């Protein structure tokens, strides 16, 4: 880091990605014991309780939706997309940080990703699951979802391939499948570790079956590494394509405020921005509850904060470009929507708070002290999560409610069922995350062992696999 | 292992030596390879660089499988759309030509990635012979450490050079943490 090199004699090394003194065995034990040995934690129980309660609300909301139809939501004639699509885009965006961490940072050989990738991938998977529910429910007759897929239909119908909405079906389902595969492949060696460490016979049988008989042979590792790297290489363009296609759902239409070429890059940056915010939201409590501060160090928080700052700036640039183009294009509809309706119209509060959360608040991350303050960073991440939800709210609602003809305008307000469904998916997400940290290793153990090996080599001190990273008072 | 090389099924699968350090394992594997042992396998709790090369294993088939899978996925996706849009269900959408290939690219891309990823995972499992829940190496008493902090070399009894006493003596000179006989 630039600021540390200026220091006298440069003897202030940056916080390591792994606290010193760890061996292969301590890494294995610390991470695996969270699953196998650690007793029930009251904070976990409270979190799980909240998650499950919200999940029950979700079940009720969905049951009512299936019984009554989408009329229980606030959607109306011009604003047909409402909260369902806002939530869909929000959740998919959150998922993107997981793939970025696991695939792109892997290809870029960023060591610090190792301890957060498993967790971020799980977050991706659960976020995409929540995201996928919304378009399904929004269809009104979700049991006919397979109509979107090409299959030998007795109706003789096939999808309309020129529609971005059909692209979206393929993009999101491919993304969900590839994320699940990537996650599972990463888990294989760790499942074998849990199998070998489990004291209970049945627990060992379950993990053993899931590990598929992994035994760590050199030939297996060779194929495994090839497969893992290639999956990362495939997932990297995939993650960009997914949010691009999501943005094309909007951009390929002619609605003012949507029909813009800036949409794909601006959506992808926003996705990564919100995704990293969610990783921070989840990492900060996790690492303190489960004693994982040696692995998820302040360096990780610092790096994630920097990525949030960078992508937040790209998002801010996207907003500025939208405003500029609206003025520069001289298109009356664009001008009205972006320079009048959004900042001063019915939904101007959402617009202003969005700017505050996504452009204003992240500027605090310029300060290293704030980036290293876990509590403050957590609060900032919550602001970003809210801000990015509001961004989608502004995009979806303002453009639809006031398009070309004032005679077709209508206001939109969400109903309690919109809220219940949205809050319900947060419950589903929380439930899955809390379940995950109890039954699977939240940090990739085999990759951490590799990190122990690499760091012990970098510093020239090996022999019984100890990490000899210069210890410094910095790692709290 | 039906004992294709041995006249009768041997009772011993092989000799398993455990080492503390991955570098040591690579060295020992190399010297075993130089002595002519071929039917052997090394086990480690994380991928160790050069260990596969030390065993004389240089190229795996996963990359080309992924290429084939991606190609198949991409071609399949593109041709499916062409067939559907041009022959099976031709439909005039906004006056666009039936063969409007640029609009087919996003889905072609997605099916390419999907085909490649499925080939990567299932190809890797297939070539690794997984799932295979039972394997003789699990009989080695210390083998649970292969998923923790142990680095193992197993010289199999089906190797033509394998001799219970001599191979044991050779492994003992390599400074292992422990040596065990792996039964079937």
Structural account:
The complex is a heterodimer of chains A (476) and B (184). Chain A has 476 residues and is mainly α. Chain A has one domain: Formate dehydrogenase/DMSO reductase fold (Up-down Bundle). Helices cover 69% and strands 0% of the residues of chain A. Chain A has 16 helices and no strands. In chain A, helix 4 crosses helix 9, helix 5 crosses helix 6 and helix 8 packs across helix 9. Chain A is globular. Chain B is an alpha+beta fold. Chain B contains 5 helices and 4 strands; from the N terminus they run E-H-E-H-H-H-E-H-E. A 4-stranded antiparallel beta sheet of chain B has the order 2-3-1-4. The longest helix of chain B is centred in the middle third of the chain and has 27 residues. Chain B is rod-shaped. At the A-B interface, helix 2, helix 6, helix 8 and helix 16 of A face helix 1, strand 2, helix 2, helix 3 and helix 4 of B.
């Amino acid at each position: 880091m630039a600021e540390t090199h200026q220091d006298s004699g440069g003897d202030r090394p940056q916080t390591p990605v792994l606290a010193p003194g760890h061996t292969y065995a301590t890494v294995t034990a610390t991470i695996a014991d969270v699953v196998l040995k650690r007793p029930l934690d009251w904070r976990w129980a409270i979190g799980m309780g909240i998650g499950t309660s919200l999940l029950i609300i979700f079940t009720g909301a969905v049951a009512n939706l299936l019984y009554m139809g989408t009329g229980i939501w606030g959607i109306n004639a011009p604003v047909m997309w409402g909260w369902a699509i806002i939530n869909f885009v929000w959740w998919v965006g959150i998922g993107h940080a997981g793939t970025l961490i696991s695939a792109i940072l892997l290809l870029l050989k960023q060591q610090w990703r190792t301890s957060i990738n498993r967790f971020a991938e799980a977050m991706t998977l659960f976020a995409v699951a929540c995201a996928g529910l919304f378009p399904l429910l929004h269809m009104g007759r979700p049991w006919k979802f397979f109509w979107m897929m090409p299959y030998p239909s007795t109706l003789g119908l096939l999808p309309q391939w020129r529609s971005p909405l059909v692209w979206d079906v393929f993009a999101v389902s491919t993304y969900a499948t590839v994320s699940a595969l990537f996650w599972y492949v990463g888990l294989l060696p760790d499942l074998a570790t849990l199998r070998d460490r489990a004291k209970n016979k049945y627990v060992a049988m379950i993990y053993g079956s899931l590990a598929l008989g992994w035994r760590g042979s050199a030939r297996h590792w060779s194929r495994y590494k090839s497969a893992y790297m290639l999956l990362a290489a495939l997932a990297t363009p995939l993650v960009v394509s997914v949010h691009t296609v999501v943005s094309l759902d909007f951009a390929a239409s002619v609605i003012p405020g949507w029909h813009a070429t800036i949409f794909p890059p601006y959506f992808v940056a926003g996705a990564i921005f919100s995704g990293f915010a969610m990783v921070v939201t989840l990492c900060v409590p996790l690492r303190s509850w489960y004693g994982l501060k040696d692995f998820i160090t302040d360096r990780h928080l610092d790096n994630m904060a920097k990525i949030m700052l960078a992508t937040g700036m790209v998002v801010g640039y996207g907003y500025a470009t939208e405003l500029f183009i609206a003025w520069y294009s001289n298109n009356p509809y664009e001008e009205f929507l972006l320079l009048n309706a959004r900042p001063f119209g019915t939904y101007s509060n959402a617009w202003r708070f969005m700017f505050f959360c996504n452009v204003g608040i992240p500027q605090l991350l310029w300060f290293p002290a704030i980036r290293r303050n876990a509590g403050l960073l957590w609060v900032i991440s919550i602001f970003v999560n809210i801000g990015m939800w509001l961004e989608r709210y502004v995009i979806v609602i303002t453009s639809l409610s006031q398009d070309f003809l004032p005679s077709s305008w209508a206001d939109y307000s969400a109903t309690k069922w919109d809220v219940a469904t949205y809050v319900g998916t947060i419950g589903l997400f929380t439930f899955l995350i809390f379940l995950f940290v109890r039954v699977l290793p939240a940090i990739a153990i085999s990759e951490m062992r590799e990190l122990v090996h690499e760091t012990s080599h970098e510093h020239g001190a090996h022999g019984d696999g100890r990490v000899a990273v210069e210890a410094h008072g910095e790692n709290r | 292992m039906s004992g294709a090389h041995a006249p009768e099924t041997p009772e011993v699968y092989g000799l398993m030596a455990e080492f503390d350090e991955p570098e040591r394992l690579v060295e020992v594997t190399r010297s075993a390879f130089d002595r002519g042992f071929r039917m052997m396998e090394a086990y480690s709790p994380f991928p160790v660089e050069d260990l596969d090369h030390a065993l004389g294993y240089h190229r795996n088939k996963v990359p080309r499988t992924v290429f084939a899978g991606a190609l198949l996925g991409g071609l399949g996706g593109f041709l499916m759309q062409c067939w559907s849009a041009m022959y099976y269900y031709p439909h005039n959408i906004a006056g666009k030509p039936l063969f409007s290939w640029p609009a087919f690219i996003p889905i072609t891309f997605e099916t390419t990635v999907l085909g490649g990823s499925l080939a990567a995972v299932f190809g890797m499992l297939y070539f690794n012979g997984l799932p295979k829940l039972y394997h003789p190496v699990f009989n080695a008493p210390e083998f649970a450490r292969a998923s923790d902090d142990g680095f193992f070399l197993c010289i199999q009894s089906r190797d033509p050079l394998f001799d219970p006493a001599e191979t044991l003596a050779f492994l003992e000179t390599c400074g292992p943490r422990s040596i065990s006989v792996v039964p079937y």
